[in-house]
């Protein structure tokens, strides 16, 4: 494997990475990202009213999918894609034909490092994904593959090769990713602390995954990146990325892959309304006290050798154990199975199959 400190990641993955953006508004924010995003293909998933025209700045190569496109492409299986929630973004993962995905929210801008230089978030995510992870033994100097770092004394040599990195989880300056109760008690809190570090989350440890600055190896872990049933018609919202993160992490632990968190930072520009968020999150805040022990206890039979098999097994356990908590989890388990069926239809034998161009698609 190439030394990630010496490669030119942006050039290397130009034709191997899609940027997925969920939105309900014009994408003016792309102007700030133009120097970094313009070489890449964008998949825009429009939420809300499909008759509303979304404007994309000129010069970007993109596909734009709205709810009508999702219904047309997936048919009855479109029921597994959330509506009026940023969870709709996972449709973009399904129709992508690339090895890697970077997803970002439309209220996230380019951050600056402590020296005042613009941060190329995409480049750092690519570096994370192209270097190994170390989930089986913690390195106290964090990422040992970074220039200027290495494995510390006492680190087993048999583990120094590392394992493939499936997920790169980036962070945010300015508005932190807080839940509604924390927003309410700390309305003016801002994250100004730039920590210059990347670390592998250890095996057996869950984490709260935020979808607004996230990259992953689609070929490796894509089928597990389902953002659940959220938003319109559902009793819960704002737990879509959390659900995907918990499912993804237990599958990565089982299959021997890594998840990194830390750099890169983006600038999160606006806080959502805490009262609206509380209404969306209320059941999630209550249910997560059952969900975390559930995921901590998930085990897989030996025949779960693929992401799809692992995900179907989680769905089975969700129905058996969480269905008692609320009937919502029975519906979610069914949707998880539908998601895998739809994924496999659009991506037979793990390879992407081209689908009809959506309305408003740009080549």
Strand-helix topology:
Blueprint: H1 9-12, E1 17-23, H2 30-37, E2 41-46, E3 61-65, H3 67-74, H4 90-95, E4 100-104, E5 108-109, H5 121-130, E6 165-174, H6 180-185, E7 198-200, E8 213-217, H7 218-221, H8 240-255, E9 258-268, H9 274-297, H10 307-322, H11 328-346
Parallel strand pairs: 1-2, 1-4, 2-3, 6-9
Antiparallel strand pairs: 4-8, 5-9, 6-8, 7-9
Summarize this, please?
The protein is α/β, with parallel strands linked by helices. It is 33% helix and 15% strand. Strands 1, 2, 3, 4, 5, 6, 7, 8 and 9 form a 9-stranded mixed sheet that branches.
Task: Describe the overall structure.
Helix 10 runs antiparallel to helix 11. Strands 1, 2, 3, 4, 5, 6, 7, 8 and 9 form a nine-stranded mixed β-sheet that branches. The chain is built from eleven helices and nine strands. Helix 2 links the parallel strand 1 and strand 2. The protein has 363 residues and is α/β, with parallel strands linked by helices.
Looking at this protein, list some descriptive labels:
alpha/beta
| Unreliable parts | 350-363
- Can you write the helix and strand succession as a string? HEHEEHHEEHEHEEHHEHHH
In DSSP terms (H or I, runs of 4 or more residues), the helix count works out at 11
What proportion of the residues form beta strands (DSSP E)?
5-15%
In helices, the fraction of residues equals 25-40%
Structural class determined from secondary elements: alpha/beta
Mean pLDDT: 93
How many strands in all? 9
Global outline: globular
Q: Give the biggest sheet.
A: 9 strands, mixed
Radius of gyration: 20 Å
């Amino acid at each position: 494997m190439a030394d990630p400190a010496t490669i030119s990641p942006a050039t290397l993955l130009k034709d191997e990475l899609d940027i997925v953006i969920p939105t309900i508004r014009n994408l003016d924010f792309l102007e700030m990202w133009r120097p970094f995003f313009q070489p890449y293909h964008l998949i825009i998933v429009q939420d809300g009213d499909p008759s509303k025209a979304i404007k994309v700045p000129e010069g970007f190569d993109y596909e734009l999918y709205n709810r009508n496109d999702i219904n047309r492409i997936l048919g009855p299986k479109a029921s597994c894609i959330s509506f009026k929630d940023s969870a709709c973004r996972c449709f973009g993962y399904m129709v992508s034909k690339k090895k890697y995905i970077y997803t970002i929210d439309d209220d996230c801008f380019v951050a600056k490092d402590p020296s005042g230089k613009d941060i190329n978030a995409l480049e750092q995510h690519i570096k994370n994904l192209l270097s190994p992870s170390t989930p089986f033994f913690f390195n106290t100097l964090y990422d040992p593959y970074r220039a200027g770092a290495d494995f510390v004394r006492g680190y087993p040599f048999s583990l120094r090769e590392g394992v493939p990195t499936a997920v790169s989880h980036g962070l945010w300056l300015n508005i932190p990713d807080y839940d509604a109760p924390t927003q309410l008690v700390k309305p003016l809190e801002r994250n100004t602390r730039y920590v210059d570090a990347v670390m592998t989350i250890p095996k057996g440890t869950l984490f709260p995954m935020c979808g607004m600055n996230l990259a992953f190896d689609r070929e490796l872990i894509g089928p597990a990146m389902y953002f659940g049933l959220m938003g319109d018609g559902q009793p819960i919202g704002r737990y879509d990325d959390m659900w995907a993160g918990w499912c993804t992490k237990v599958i990565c632990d089982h299959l021997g892959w890594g998840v990194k968190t830390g750099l890169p930072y983006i600038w999160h520009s606006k806080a959502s309304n805490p009262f609206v968020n509380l209404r969306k999150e209320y059941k999630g805040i209550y249910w997560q006290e059952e969900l975390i022990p559930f995921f901590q206890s998930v085990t897989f039979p030996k025949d779960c050798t693929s992401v799809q098999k692992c995900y179907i097994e989680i769905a089975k356990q969700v129905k058996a154990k969480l269905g008692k908590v609320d009937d919502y989890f029975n519906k979610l388990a069914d949707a998880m199975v539908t998601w895998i069926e739809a994924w496999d239809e659009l991506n037979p034998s793990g390879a992407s199959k081209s689908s009809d161009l959506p309305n408003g698609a740009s080549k």
